[in-house]
Design a protein that fits this description.
One of its GO terms (molecular function) is phosphoglucosamine mutase activity. This protein is of the alpha/beta class and about 450 residues long. Helices cover about 40% and strands about 20% of the residues.
Length: about 450
């Protein structure tokens, strides 16, 4: 069982010992640290924080602990209840709130939960802010409000509807065009809040929706990471229903993947590629993704006359570089779409709306659209960390071994070869080393990954 404290928040497994897992005491302590930081940082008379959660089994317990801790600090709470990560991000500025907290462990299995922390813009905290909260949490320097100064709780369960309205109002989203196309779509909501939000959006766009695992019970019917090997039920239902495509999201709805009409994956890396292709065709500009994402985005961006740049992994890093380079769309190759015309956060609702508008305009099948893009193939692997593994030493050794290649060390070690690449990094969310490779065929990507993993094991003596 695990508790991971990082600048991006606190994430862990439910139950077990305090300080080793995400226990009620750890949740309260970290919420108190966030609330204390907020009050120190903004120095106001009153404070407001938006709180929402995905449908995982521990969500209600953790949310009540977090909200009541904030109330105990004298902070007013806007309780969205069951929500999505992008919905909370949208709600923070609309509520003129000082920050937001989403209770979700994203794609992690049901035993995990986490506190994702937002600033007053509804964006994730930067490294310095996250480090300060960790420092406050370790110091236990909390000053709770007296009884007459306790915060208040306001329930607002309308924000998924409001979020859908915001998406439909985007200039490049054309619901009428999508309705005219007469799409039939199967939605896998992994029994979390995507099962509420995505069908609502689709129905508003005139799409015939077939629901699969859309009851927000928190009982995930399969591994909630939206990867091909977890989506056999979706694949079978898309074919059986003769649907135009399938849509799957992770439990907090910031990762988006499509399935083609033939039951094969569109490819999570190509979610961003397709949406960027559409946006760039309407408005020229630049793009950004992280350095573990496909080269296909670079190719599509350059086709439209724009400039592509890669950031360190992590949404806050992508957003920072997007702002710097004035990128009009960006995100992460795991299916995360960041569209600044909406907000600076990964948003599956925005991705769905842009993709369907693009598909309706192209008047082709989902399979044909996918085949129109450059073909790269990725292999995503991981090595479990143990206390005896010297991760920094392993990465340094790999850097030295391939010193003659194009090396980037902004985030772990990325080695760019002429025809392929490999990226090695320690995960921010799990106790693992991630090994991502990309090549012109799946066999080549898998072979490169296996070669690198064998070299790591030899260096580490495992």
């Amino acid at each position: 069982m695990t508790l991971i404290k990082s600048i991006s928040g606190i994430r862990g497994t439910i139950g077990g010992k305090v300080g080793e897992n995400l226990t009620p005491i750890d949740a309260v302590k970290f919420a108190a640290a966030y609330g204390t930081w907020l009050k120190n940082d903004r120095n106001k008379d009153t404070y407001r924080v938006v709180v929402g959660r995905d449908a995982r089994l521990s969500g209600n317990m953790i949310q009540e602990l977090v909200m009541n801790t904030l109330i105990g600090l004298g902070i007013h709470v806007i309780d969205l209840g069951l929500s999505t990560t992008p919905t909370v991000e949208v709600a923070v500025p609309l509520e003129h709130a000082d920050g937001g907290i989403i209770l979700t462990a994203s794609h992690n299995p049901k035993q995990w939960n986490a506190l994702k922390l937002l600033n007053s813009k509804g964006e994730f905290l930067n490294g310095a802010e996250g480090a300060k909260i960790l420092e406050i949490a370790e110091s236990d320097s909390f000053n709770f409000a007296e009884v007459d100064d306790l915060g208040k709780r306001t329930i607002n369960d309308a924000y998924i509807d409001i979020h859908v309205d915001e998406v439909l109002d985007l200039e490049l989203v054309d619901a009428d065009k999508v309705k005219a196309a007469g799409f039939k779509v199967v939605v896998d909501g992994v029994n979390s809040t995507g099962g509420i939000a995505i069908p609502m959006l689709l129905e508003r766009m005139g799409v015939h929706v077939v629901k699969l695992y859309c009851e927000p019970t928190g009982h995930f019917p399969h591994n909630p990471e939206p990867l091909k090997e977890h989506l056999t039920d979706l694949s079978e239902l898309v074919v059986k229903e003769n649907a135009d495509l399938g849509i799957v999201v992770d439990p907090d709805v910031d990762r988006l993947a499509f399935m083609c009409n033939d039951g094969e994956m569109f490819g999570e890396e190509y979610t961003l590629v397709a949406c960027a292709d559409y946006v760039l065709s309407k408005k020229g500009g630049n793009t950004v993704s992280n350095m573990s994402s496909s080269r296909a985005l670079r190719d599509v961006t350059e086709k439209h006359g724009g400039t592509y740049e890669a950031s360190a992994v992590g949404e806050v890093n992508v957003v920072e570089l997007m702002k710097k380079n004035e990128a009009i769309i960006g995100g992460e190759g795991n299916g995360g779409i960041i569209y600044p015309a909406s907000h600076y956060g990964r948003d599956s609702l925005v991705g769905v709306a842009l993709f369907l508008t693009h598909l309706a305009e192209q008047k082709v099948s989902t399979r044909e659209l996918r085949d129109s893009y450059p073909s790269y193939f990725m292999s995503k692997n991981k090595i479990q960390l143990t206390p005896q593994l010297d991760v920094d030493g392993i990465l340094k050794a790999m850097e030295e071994k391939y010193a003659s290649e194009d090396i980037t060390t902004v985030d772990g070690v990325k080695i760019d070869f002429a025809e392929n690449w490999v990226h090695l990094r320690k995960s921010n969310t799990e106790p693992i080393i991630r090994i991502y490779t990309e090549a012109k065929s799946q066999d080549l990507a898998d072979e490169l990954a296996q070669k690198i993993m064998n070299e790591i094991k030899e260096i580490a003596n495992i």
